[in-house]
Amino acid sequence: MIILDFERPIFELEAKIKELKNLNTGDLSIIDEIKRLESKQKKMLKNIYSELTPWQKVLVARHQERPKTSDYVNALIDNFVPLAGDRLFGNDLAIIAGIGKFKGMSVAVLGHEKGKETQDRIKHNFGMPHPEGYRKAYRIMEIADKFDLPLLTFIDTAGAYPGVGAEERGQAEAIAKCIERSLQFKKPIVATIIGEGGSGGAVALAVANIILMLEHSIYSVISPEGCASILYRSSEKAQEAADALKLTAQDLLRFRMIDEIVEEPLGGAHRDPNFIIKTVGERIKVALTNALTISSPKEHRNQKFFELCRNFDKGN
User: Fold this and answer.
1) Is the pTM of this model over 0.85?
2) What region, left, alpha or beta, does residue 103 occupy, with left being phi > 0 and alpha being psi -120 to 50 degrees?
3) Averaged over 237-245, what is the pLDDT?
């Protein structure tokens, strides 16, 4: 497992516990010591994760072993049929799109995909979509609307790809059209921020009736490094920027930017992927059931975001 700097004391304890378990031949003193260290390790894990700084939450949200959109889709969506391409330029693998069954209900699915191992991450462009990725998302929304399917989205991106080619092919316009299409969508949309929610690249899939956010995920207008480069003229001040951005789930719930926080297993989602995927599935089911009772999901979604804009204009 990849070890974050602030987790090192925990892993040192775990190494001692493993060593003692390998030595254990039934000696009661060794068994007692194992129990003592396990209790200490659990307490330490709880203390560290209950007091994470915003920057440490950024590191947890980016953890390479954190479940990806593909993991959620494979576990939660039955009979998933992936749909590819934007019918204009190509198929962007940074966006997963398709239709399937969620808890017996037909749904459309969209999500950022970062990939896992190095080659896989390169293949998916580290979850940073090009314009064709957002145009693919737009196309899936069109299909879902045509067949009256609710939409589930999974957000996990540092932001839209900022390369020259992407800008030349209309990155800003593609994101704007995606947001516009989300506001016009007739059926309910439930969005879940599972890792990073970075910039407009995240908002493009997060204009939803109900927005869930994992406990140690982040959601911000810009990455801490990008913010530090602009405000402090140095990316080395990313920790200060993370504090200023108010990007944690707890901050965003207070600002009413999200609707609900999904608690992660002790030590983060990367420590127990199966548990968090099951939990997210249960919370999405409740959210979608509630959203389906809304008389006009489109009007509800528009009102929700217009209210947010008005509140920010007033400084609330």
Assistant:
1) yes
2) left
3) 92
